[in-house]
Automatic annotation (TrEMBL):
Major localisation: membrane
Name of the protein in its database record: MMPL family transporter
Localization, UniProt: Cell membrane
Topological relation to the membrane, as annotated: Multi-pass membrane protein
PANTHER family cross-referenced by the UniProt entry: MEMBRANE PROTEIN MJ1562-RELATED (PTHR33406), MEMBRANE PROTEIN YDFJ (PTHR33406:SF13)
Organism: Brevibacterium daeguense
Compositionally biased region (Low complexity): 918-938
PROSITE patterns given in the database record: SSD
Region annotation Disordered: where it falls in the sequence: 914-945
């Protein structure tokens, strides 16, 4: 990864104008496409397969009169007037007649219709007009809403002074993306943090430019996706919050690292490439963890939540790609203008520490002075938030959470004031009445049974459909849709199903938007544990692979859980208990959005892993380079604390900016994320982590050997890259060698048996070969024999890593660029039953036409037939003539019939390079450096290095 990103960063630096132009062109093209194809957002939450959703879908076929989208108009008489008298009655009736002609309206119910109950309140001061539309809210869109609002405004103008009229209902659940100037406050704060951290106006502008570009592209893609998918209006806001935060942070990590490298004396190009490789590797890893966690929201099996997760994940992915391409391109445009000024010197010539270094040095000292005390204080303190977190109440939003002053919010509040909270969330019981001999009588009797249930305010309607095969009972509960007691009413109504079937022979189901919301909330609750196991398990696995440790991921995961609990507790204190509610612009308290816990857990997981990777990778890098356990903690902390603090402050600012101005859904998510980020970065990662690491000491980096061998490696610290860069001009600039190595050795016999290849003679324990030096120029031929031949050939072709020594194949450094060597260096095996390695006559002939720079053949003295022998001879001759180097594995050391007569070749007998004798013994040769190209065609000299 680091090697790929190094080359990507260098390429972006050199082609900076092209990279910038491509991103800008992509933004413009996607924007134009979205303008043509985009549709409205849809805030209707559905749960395929649930009882409520199945019943609702069935009504579309059996009772279309009550399917589609509903809307309501509430009219409130002036003080002292009655709604049933004139002019109210006449004006309402006229409005009903006009509304019947609205586009897509299938039915309008007058509150004065005979036999209709519950639409005029007991005091006769308010009445409700219900409208039914053909189509879902997304299809109807703003035009339908505007027509209704205009008509209601006209109605209100005809009523006496003091009367009110407002439209609301399901039609108004469609909303757009609302972004105010308040959200920009977070970006402004982020800019000043960047300026303070980086100390350069140009450098500070880079993360903002890339983050805004990434968010713009992500938002456009989300808007564009409405053409083919149902997307709710929370999705773009969530993507905006997350995209801004990670976009700024990811770019900051790379820019900061590049400036540090420039301060060390590297050129602007080399600094950009190395920063992209090292910090870019951590950015990719951190981004992948966020993406996996967000995509993992699909574990809840809820389409709207899956769409939210995928959309947010796509925005994060764009932020990652922009960080590793656009940032080095901008560094290329800036060049040396972002090189930091030299550090101030003390009188003795040493660098004077910056104020932040003294601050973070003191922080680390306090955190680790008495590490056990630090751990106890942090764990106990944060665990106290588990008490309010245990009282977290969840519900899906209704129009009560709409923006203050909007028609939907006014309608909701007026309905609750004059009719009761249950009228904002009616329930519907459906009944299959095909077997009924008295549909009207049975439905009336069923309605009376339902009205007797505790928690039911009244039954408004209990009627069969025109074909008398389906009946509905419209139920008004006593409580608000988001009240836990309404959940109890729904469950009690569903528990009546066996009784109703015994008495009437009807199968029933409870549905309606409120029942759907309850089912969604309960499904989310059930999904929370599996998702938590998924996230925690993923955390342990990924961090174990990155840090090669057992205790580091355990500690990181425990800290993550503390951050999540604290975030939940803070949300409860504000949104349930009302703490600081007025200061945060919260008009009412109550349950929070049902998917808050799973969203919060997913996002905090990814961001917590960001800080863990950037902080602890510095500690690991110091530890593997020889610093003791205690010294590694301080060195890693000091190298990362400034950037991690800046990143956390930026994320906190971006999330916190959404709290005072956003709708309640976003408020709760933004508050939880802001608190979670602050706690995770400053209390868990920068305080608890150093203390735990100090307690563990060297044990922090312990990993069982068997686990270390089977796990893949992620070079987040860039050790492989530094090795590659170090050997880039080894043994000399523009080296002509096709293969060059010193002190090569392979010590595990089992590693020389991939794919059914022979393992060499014998099978004795110990090294297969050791202390082998190689310098092979174009046109030279080497024959290899003895125990370990296959291991040696696999090493030269990039299919096996040497245990020790240094090796380059052409310009490629091993093992970091083994993949490129494998792609360019085929391993030809004669007389083998392994199909993937056997070279047919056609393949040998094809290789002879265009030989690779390094031709490697095993079993070269054991062709299957005369034709294969002839083709091999032609292949070797062609390779030598074209300037390739040739390596032949043979059983017979004297076999040379396949080598062109004019060629000179060298024989390497690996049996004398088994590593079993001590340096200077009789069977061990001295090991001078390989000869230069001018002095010798090839050298294969044994000896221990």
């Amino acid at each position: 990864m680091s090697t790929f990103l190094y080359e990507l960063g260098r390429s972006a630096f050199r082609r900076r104008k092209t990279v910038v132009a491509i991103w800008v062109a992509l933004l413009v093209a996607l924007g134009a496409l979205a303008g043509i194809l985009a549709k409205d957002f849809d805030d209707e939450f559905t749960l395929p397969g649930s009882e409520s959703q199945q019943a609702l879908d069935s009504l579309n076929l059996t009772f279309p009169e009550v399917s589609g989208t509903g809307a309501s108009v509430i009219v409130v008489a002036a003080e002292g007037d009655e709604i049933t008298g004139d002019p109210y009655r006449a004006e309402i009736e006229e409005f009903v007649e006009d509304a019947e002609d609205f586009a897509d309206v299938t039915a309008v119910t007058s509150p004065f219709m005979a036999g209709l109950e519950g639409v005029v309140n007991a005091e006769e001061t308010a009445a409700i007009v219900n409208l039914q539309y053909d189509g879902d809210p997304a299809e109807l869109g703003d035009p339908a809403k505007q027509v209704l609002v205009d008509a209601v405004d006209a109605l209100a103008a005809q009523l006496p002074a003091g009367a009110e009229a407002s439209a609301g209902g399901g039609l108004f659940s469609v909303t757009g993306v609302h972004i105010s100037w308040v959200e920009a406050v977070g970006v402004v704060i982020a800019f000043f943090v960047l300026l303070f951290t980086l100390g350069s106006l140009r450098a500070a502008g880079m993360p903002l430019i890339t983050a805004l570009l990434g968010v713009a592209i992500g938002m456009i893609l989300i808007v564009l996706s409405t053409a083919v998918a149902t997307v709710n209006s929370t999705t773009p806001m969530l993507a905006l919050m997350l995209g801004l935060a990670v976009g700024i942070d990811y770019a900051l990590f790379i820019v900061s690292r590049a400036r540090d490298l420039m301060a060390e004396g590297h050129s602007a190009e080399e600094a950009a490439a190395r920063a992209t490789a090292t910090s870019g590797s951590a950015v990719v890893f951190a981004g992948v963890t966020v993406i996996i966690a967000l995509v993992g929201l699909g574990v809840a099996r809820m389409p709207f939540l899956t769409v939210m997760g995928v959309a947010a994940a796509a925005t994060v992915a764009i932020a990652v790609v922009i960080a590793v391409t656009m940032v080095p391109a901008l560094l290329g445009l800036a060049g040396d203008k972002v090189r930091p000024k030299p550090a101030k010197k003390r009188a003795d010539g040493t660098d004077r520490p910056r104020p932040d270094q003294r601050f973070f040095g003191a922080w680390e000292t306090v955190a680790t002075k008495v590490p056990a005390l630090t751990v106890v204080l942090v764990v106990v303190g944060l665990s106290l938030f588990a008490l309010p977190a245990s009282r977290l109440e969840l519900a899906l939003p209704d129009n009560g959470s709409a923006e203050e002053g909007s028609p939907a919010k006014i309608n909701h509040d007026l309905t609750e004031e004059h009719f009761g909270p249950g009228y904002n969330g009616p329930l519907v019981m459906t009944a299959g009445i095909l077997s009924s001999t008295d549909p009207l009588g049975d439905m009336q009797a069923l309605g009376e049974d339902v009205e007797a249930v505790d928690g039911v305010e009244e039954v408004v309607l209990a009627v069969p459909n025109p074909t008398a095969d389906t009946g509905i009972v419209q139920i008004i509960p006593e409580f608000a849709p988001d009240d836990q007691r309404t959940n109890d009413v729904v469950h009690e109504l569903r528990e009546m199903a066996p009784q109703i079937e015994d008495e009437y022979g009807f199968e029933t189901a409870v549905t309606g938007s409120t029942a759907v919301a309850i089912d969604v909330s309960e499904q989310l609750g059930r999904a929370l544990l599996p998702f938590g196991i998924f996230v925690v398990g993923l955390s342990v696995i990924l961090l174990t692979m990155v840090f090669r440790s057992i205790w580091v991921p355990v500690k990181a995961t425990f800290g993550y859980l503390l951050s999540v609990v604290t975030a939940f507790g803070a949300v409860v204190l504000v949104f349930h208990d009302g703490l600081f509610a007025s200061a945060l612009g919260l008009s009412e308290t109550g349950p929070v959005i049902s998917f808050l816990p799973i969203i919060l857990m997913g996002i905090l997981f990814g961001l917590a892993m960001d800080y863990e990777v950037f902080l602890v990778s510095g500690m690991r890098e110091a530890y593997v380079h020889g610093a003791g356990a205690r010294g590694a903690i301080r060195k890693g902390f000091m190298s990362s604390a400034r950037v991690v603090s800046a990143a956390a402050i930026i994320m906190f600012s971006v999330f916190a900016a959404f709290v005072p101005a956003s709708e309640s859904i976003i408020k709760s998510i933004a508050l939880g994320l802001a608190v979670g980020i602050f706690v995770d970065a400053f209390i868990v990662r920068m305080t608890l982590v150093p203390a735990v690491m100090a307690l563990l000491g060297d044990r922090a980096w312990w990993l069982p050997g068997w686990l270390d061998r089977i796990m893949p490696r992620f070079d987040v610290e860039g050790e492989g890259l530094f090795h590659q860069v170090e050997l880039r001009d080894w043994p000399e600039p523009d080296s002509p060698y096709r293969a060059y190595g010193e002190g090569l050795g392979v010590g595990d016999p089992a590693s020389a048996r991939p794919g059914g290849l022979r393992s060499g003679a014998g099978g004795a324990s110990g090294a297969l070969f050791a202390g082998v030096d190689v310098a092979l120029l174009p046109g030279q031929v080497l024959t290899v024999t003895g125990h370990g031949t296959v291991a040696f050939l696999l090493t030269l072709t990039g299919r096996l890593n040497a245990d020790r020594g240094e090796l380059k194949i052409g310009r490629f450094v091993m093992p970091e660029q083994a993949g490129k060597v494998r792609a360019r260096t085929p391993l030809v095996v004669l007389d083998s039953a392994e199909d993937s390695l056997v070279s047919s006559a056609r393949e040998l002939a094809k290789l002879a036409q265009e030989p690779p720079e390094l031709l490697v053949v095993d079993r070269a003295d054991s062709p299957r037939d005369e034709r294969t022998a002839r083709l091999l001879t032609e292949l070797v001759r062609s390779a030598v003539d074209s300037g390739s180097a040739v390596v032949l594995g043979v059983d017979d050391p004297d076999a040379d019939w396949m080598i062109p007569p004019q060629s000179t070749y060298t024989l390497l007998d690996l049996d004398i390079h088994r590593g079993e004798s001590e340096p200077g013994s009789a069977d061990s040769a001295s090991a001078p450096a390989p000869a230069s190209p001018e002095s010798a065609p090839a050298q294969f000299l044994g000896g221990h290095r």
